[in-house]
Every structure is written in C-alpha cells, then in structure tokens.
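Write out this protein's structure.
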Amino acid sequence: MKLTREAKTGLLAVAAIILFIFGYSFLKGQNLLSSDRTFYAVYDDVGGLSSSSAIHINGLQVGKVSNISFINGKGQLLVTMNLSNDFTFSKNSIAKITSDGIIGGKSMTIELASGGPTAQSGDTLAGRIEKGLIESVGSKLEPLQKKVESAIVNADSLISGINHVLGPNTRKDLKTAIADLSKTMAAFKGTSSSLEKLLTENDEKLNRTFTNLDEMSTNFNQLSDTLAHLDIKKLVGNLQNVVSDFEKISSNLEQGNGTLGKLLNDEAVYTNLENATKQLQELLQDIKLNPDRYVHISVFGGKADKYEPPKDPTK
C-alpha cells in the first residue's frame, strides 16, 4: 500500500508534534517515558528557586524541579518535584531550598527523617527555606550596623559639643597654651642638655663619690655586724652598775661621808682655806715689795733690818 503525499505530511506533522512535546518536557526536566515519582512542597517564598533546579539527597542529585505555581490568593507557592531515583524515604522528610554557593543559584535538598510512613508519589512534603551565606551575614551584620549608626550619631553630637565649647576665645587660649608649652619644653630641653654636660664633666668625681659611699656602706655593715655580736644585755647591765655607783658617790658627797664629802660640806675647812689663801697672798705681796728682807746678801756681814708687817697698798 502506497501512502499518499498527504498521509506522509500528516505523519511528519504528528511526529514533529510528538518530538516537540518530548523536547519541551525534556527541557523542563520531565521525561514522559520514565516512571518518575512526583512530590510537592508549599512555600511562602522560594527565594529565587526556578524550574529545572536540581534536587539532592545526601549530596546526590535524584531529580529536578518540574514546576512552580501559585496555589491560593495568599501568595503561597507550590513546587512540583520529579524524582527519577527510586530511593525510598520517610514522608516526614523535609524539602529544603538551599543555596549552591555565594553567588550561585538555588537548589533543593531532601532532609531525611527517621520513622513515619514511606513517602509515595503525589505526597506533599514539609517545605523549608535555608538562608544563604549573604542572608546569614546580613542578618548578623544588621545589629552591628545599628550600633555603628548609633556610634556615628553620638560622635557627631560629641563633635558638635566640642565645636560649641571650643569657641574663638577658647581656641585662641588653647593655641597660646600650646605655644607656652612648646617654650617650656624647649627650656626643659636646654636644662637637660646642661645637666647632661654637667654629669659628663663630673663623671669621675661622681664615680669616686659612689665608690666612697659603697665603702662607707661596707664599713657600716661591718659595724652593724660587730654591734650585732655585742652582748647588749651585759653592756646595759654594766652601764646600770656604773650609774648606780655614781649615784652612791653623789649621795655620799651630799651627806658628807668620806674625806671629799667632809671637804665639800665642812665650813671650817672652807674658812681655813680662805685664810690660808689670804695669808699666802700677803706673803707674796710682801716679797714683791721688800725682796731684800727675804734674800739678804752682805759682803761685809751686816745685819738684817727688823721685820715690819707689810702695808696693803689697796687699803
């Protein structure tokens, strides 16, 4: 049987339509000839997830996202997942939207759960979206941003207050104070140079002085050691005995005991000493006025004159 041109054209058109349908489904991640399982998940926000995004279990790609559509007027999104792998898992597992990298797209990961019934094709899994690195860093940097903004506002207020306090007169006084401080530092530098010169010129004398001080310290340490070895108790006892003996001697002198005590306390002795002193004075005066009366030299053997009491010239 020979096909007509019209039949051939119809067959080619049907084949082209079938190929188009299969190609379109393949581009969308669907294989009409395979026995893929279909699962669903509901999200408030898919975070940039798109159709044909990969689905992983423990890092292994097991399928692709086939469709994303709105399901109600609240804006919730229904994600349709086609799994080509026949791996079985619990219906309590979670379909989580994750980031492929810092600047990569989105993908899905099924977090396996233990227990519960086995998930069947057409079941709806619990959906969750995982924050990406940028979103996590942004959420953590948000409190820091607020603190930085607050610090900037406080710094601006502080600078405004300083500008208000540092008026023209205050700034002028501050400049004068800084200039005076500079002069003081210059004078201090000159004094320091003079002191350094003085120390340099007298370095030898200072060394001798410190040497002498060191020797004095050594001698003092030796003296301290000597004093430390003395029997202080015995020395104090001897000193107390000496003081006691001196007190006894003083008491005896006051009471007139002994020869020295009698001499000090007997008025007759004092009177006799006074008279003897007076007579000795008169004798010396007479010898001075009449020396020939006591020393007589006579060549011819003459006699001495008769003694006459001397007259006191002061009377």
